[in-house]
Design brief:
Structural class: alpha+beta
Number of helices: 5
Strand content: 5-15%
Radius of gyration: 21 Å
Shape: elongated
Strand order of the largest sheet: 2-3-1-4
Length: about 180
């Protein structure tokens, strides 16, 4: 890292607010890729998107009876910033690893359908929907990935492999349609 980047420190309390607000806060902070450093206290790199999202969330929390404080800062100790970045990378790496694990089921499903002679248009449609879910999941992780770990490239490569596998499966299914 050349020069310290700007960060946001977010402290939110939903005490006294509707119970549903706690879930809303958790989902939004997760979607943005915030790193919890203590209960109700997070860090996130300050980008235009995260700053806008956090400021909007803070206003919502305050409007609904909770409290929120958002502070902007730069680390004075590069080692601390490196440690936080490593924690963020580890969190994203775990998410990519989960995607990589789950996508193996996609390949297994295609293989099983081929082995059972069930390469049909219906199976193609189901598999297209499954692949679209994996791709959307990947894009959500990428959106909150500020310092991509190596697992991002692995996940991207597996998605490309899944696209090719689906293309191959589709060719078999279409060939079967033409033979009927």
């Amino acid at each position: 890292m050349s020069e310290p980047r700007e960060w946001l420190l977010i402290a939110i309390s939903t005490a006294g607010a509707p119970a549903s607000l706690r879930v809303t806060v958790w989902r939004k902070l997760k979607a943005l890729g915030a790193l919890y450093i203590q209960q109700s206290t997070c860090l996130i790199p300050a980008t235009p998107k995260t700053t806008r999202g956090i400021r909007t969330l803070a206003a919502k929390v305050q409007d609904e009876g909770g409290s929120a404080r958002v502070l902007s800062f730069r680390f004075t100790d590069p080692a601390e910033e490196t440690e936080v970045v490593a924690e963020l990378q580890a969190a994203r790496a775990d998410e990519y690893q989960e995607l990589l694990t789950r996508i193996q089921g996609f390949f297994a499903e295609l293989d099983e359908e081929l082995e059972q002679g069930r390469a049909t248009y219906e199976e193609v449609e189901e598999s297209e929907a499954d692949l679209a879910r994996y791709q959307a999941w990947f894009e959500k992780i990428v959106a909150r990935d500020y310092d991509p770990p190596a697992e991002q490239e692995s996940a991207r490569a597996e998605l490309e492999r899944a696209e090719q596998a689906l293309d191959d499966f589709t060719k078999v299914a279409m060939k079967g349609l033409h033979e009927e």
